[in-house]
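Thread: assembly with ligand

MN 10:42: here's the input set. Chains plus the small molecule as SMILES. Want everything predicted jointly, not piecewise.
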Amino acid sequence: MSTTDIQYPGSEEEIARIVLEASEARRPIEVRGGGTRLDLGRPVQSASVLSVARLSGITNYDPSELVMAARAGTPLAEIEAALAENNQMLTFEPMDHRPLLAASGEPTIGGVFAGNVSGPRRISAGAARDNLLGVRFVNGSGEIVKSGGRVMKNVTGLDLVKLMAGSWGTLGVLSEVIFKVLPRPETAVTIAVSGLNDAQAAEAMAAALAMSVEVSGAAHLPESVINKFAGGSLKGGPATVLRLEGLIPSVEVRSGRLVAEMSRRGTVSVLEGDISAGLWRDIRDVTPFADGTSKPVWKVSVAPSAGHQLVAALRLKTGVDAFYDWQGGLVWLRMEADPEADLVRQYIKALGGGHATLVRADAATRASVPVFEPQPKPLEALARRVKDQFDPTGVLNPGRMTAGM
Amino acid sequence: MSELIAFLEPDRAVIDRRPAIIADLAGLLPDSCLITEERELVPFDTDAFVSYRRMPLAVVLPETTAQVAAVLKYCNDNSIPVIPRGAGTSLSGGAIPQEDAIVIGVSKLNRILEVDFPNRAAVVQAGVTNISISQAVDADGFFYAPDPSSQLACTIGGNIGMNSGGAHCLKYGVTTNNLLGVKMVMFDGSIVEIGGKALDAAGYDLLGLICGSEGQLGIVTEATVRLIAKPEGARPVLFGFESSVAAGACVTDIIGAGIIPVAIEFMDKPAIEICEAFAHAGYPMDVEALLIVEVEGSDAEMDAMLERIIEIARKHDVKTIRESQSATEAALIWKGRKSAFGATGRIADYICMDGTVPLGQLSHVLEKTSEIIDRYGLRVANVFHAGDGNMHPLILFDANDPDESMKAEMAGNDILKLCVDAGGCLTGEHGVGIEKRDLMRHQYSDADLAQQMRVRAAFDPKWILNPSKVFPLDRRNGSQTGNQSAAGDDRTAA
Ligand SMILES: Cc1cc2nc3c(=O)[nH]c(=O)nc-3n(C[C@H](O)[C@H](O)[C@H](O)COP(=O)(O)OP(=O)(O)OC[C@H]3O[C@@H](n4cnc5c(N)ncnc54)[C@H](O)[C@@H]3O)c2cc1C
Ligand SMILES: Cc1cc2nc3c(=O)[nH]c(=O)nc-3n(C[C@H](O)[C@H](O)[C@H](O)COP(=O)(O)OP(=O)(O)OC[C@H]3O[C@@H](n4cnc5c(N)ncnc54)[C@H](O)[C@@H]3O)c2cc1C
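BT 11:07: finished. Tokens for the full assembly:
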């Protein structure tokens, strides 16, 4: 792919024209936001690049309605700044991939939703897809389509919004996204329990989530990675960390109850302010594996109680480092050498199912190993039929998610 | 009776084959699962959108996923329309059959298969009622969050079909935010499993697409849903206002201040009177509008949040503030709210609109709604999920008066258009069904609708699944529908 062939449409109509021409000529295009995740996913087999970077700007934001609309190429930083000014936030905490992928560039809001990128608060506030209310996009035939809107509840027709979230630019080029925003919590504290092994930690996290204290983050950081979090300020072996957020009086009460319960399991400390915030940022951005290497990194999604079993099983076979988010259901794995895709996926299946995405690896590996979990045959056939209905000539990001699709 | 909404012309060829079809079905399921007697078919001729009725060709109530698959495959092979059905409480006519169709009801698939507390998930069959999930896990301190007022009757299958919500969805989200996986039978009888106990499923978000698809993409036979720890306590508080506009503005300010209670429900005076007469919940009768605001947590938490809410309410000249003092009182307050539709049904016929608007538009839309109602000389009671802008004007009319029935439907259409024009949508949680089908063009362009219909066709190439619903009849591409003679232009036929 020659880097000279990048188009920067400045309007939705221009996107539509470019895609239409590409579709008529059967000429594949790579859809790009800020290009921070170009090393994510399968390398796209395409001739030219369509960047939405010039399609930028917040188009509608009334803080009292808790909704924002923005053009897809709007830098995430601009969105977060506007929200911060009004003491609001994207509740699903999208990850910044740049450290992990050693990438530069400016992440865009379109890219965040195209990848359904969600961070630690996923367990209480939902994923990016749960917060996406409406989209405008150009499908593979160059038609401008909208779905959803700017209201919180909507069952008017098929929910194409969900389908667009996490479709990695293979179904349409997002031109505008409308999403839910929420007030920042008045306060946040982290209860850290030290000394638990992975299995005990899974039990502790399940116990915490069974309490009526509204845990908004639940992660376990094994000893091998612990000094990489919060600037090395966590001492005393592995830490199981639980975040509470909300009104000050309410967090006080809940944290008292959680500390009492967790004290029966290990040594408890309470982290506040910048240390707590920094810790969750490190968890979100997978800081311990942002090591400047291209050692394979997997993002594994399984039932929360299966996460540590997966890691234990893998350890018997291969060199792997791991930590857990989402109550143990999100496992970040860094492989010592080979990605061991078959092994990872075979064990996931044996443990009740889930999926693994190869988030980091060198280009040769990403071209040869299925980056996204291969789907069972009937589902893959269905996904193909869906893709055909959006992009009949197959010009949008061909091969990004699945080879030959 | 005049009917504003058209159905597809039934396929004579299918109806003529009825005896043979029934014989074939009898080979696919036990006798106890097949209903063909006219008298026994009557309960299936409509749902809660009772103004429209159509007798189905037959009803099957399978006991296994395999039986659902066998019937669906048979129907697809023979181009017989299929109407998936849960409890038939749809308010938009989503489960109304047609003369050439077979209803596949999931009511016998009513077992809770697994409750998994460490993973906070329950696996249930599609015919399980909404409330029975919460009941099954209550003693262990959990609940299933979406709580439609019809929760005693409605099924998880139907909830998925309509992406149903409820009063407590302001904090916890609607069905789509609480569904982890499904087992679904496709048009050709193949069985797919999507998602599971992991928080995210692989590939395209088909689960999100299926939620709210109104039985057009397949028949769900099992669902994995998320369980949530019950709050320590919950307290509904009544706030009475001098005007609907003040109450609406108060809602906007509460949310705008970043306070998200579990529920903010709105009732105007007619609704208060209807519900109080039914439930004796102690609603204030000397106010024009009432908000039920529920906060939850420990006493200290609830006190802290209420203090802030009260401060905001005072700015809007709140007239009455009443906190429930006991669990019994709290239950009565909710009983009044949740029986609003039933209680209304005792005094008049009604249709319930479901348009959803941006919060800042609440007061405006309430005002315009009453103008529309006045113009048609009708009455309205407003009782709705205010915190997320989900309006429910109940338009009261006399179904025995054809002229008034027609006016009610027309007023409803005007109100829904008003919601769309205010930046909202036709339906927040009740679905399009047949009711709002012909208004879809008001919200969507041809390209928008065509894209949705193409996706639909990827799941159901022959359009056999719930074919008369959601999409305007005259906008269907190609020959998928059995019969082309029923174009939307005929729809005002008497
Ligand atoms: C295989 C893979 C796995 C990933 N896993 C995670 C993860 O687990 N957690 C996480 O936080 N992030 C993950 N990401 C990355 C992250 O998705 C975001 O992509 C990010 O915010 C991208 O922003 P960007 O503007 O730099 O996008 P880019 O790097 O330019 O693009 C990222 C992806 O989004 C598509 N895209 C960008 N803009 C648009 C648009 N306007 N319309 C349609 N498609 C568009 C691109 O085609 C590309 O597929 C993953 C990415 C990939 C490819
Ligand atoms: C008094 C009353 C109060 C209500 N309150 C609320 C409320 O607060 N919030 C709310 O959201 N709704 C409410 N509703 C509407 C209604 O109860 C919901 O839409 C409910 O989810 C329907 O469930 P059901 O089992 O009755 O489904 P049905 O009415 O039988 O079917 C609903 C739709 O789902 C499809 N379907 C049913 N089962 C399946 C399946 N297994 N697989 C695929 N598709 C299927 C049907 O084809 C149909 O399109 C209320 C209704 C009444 C009568």
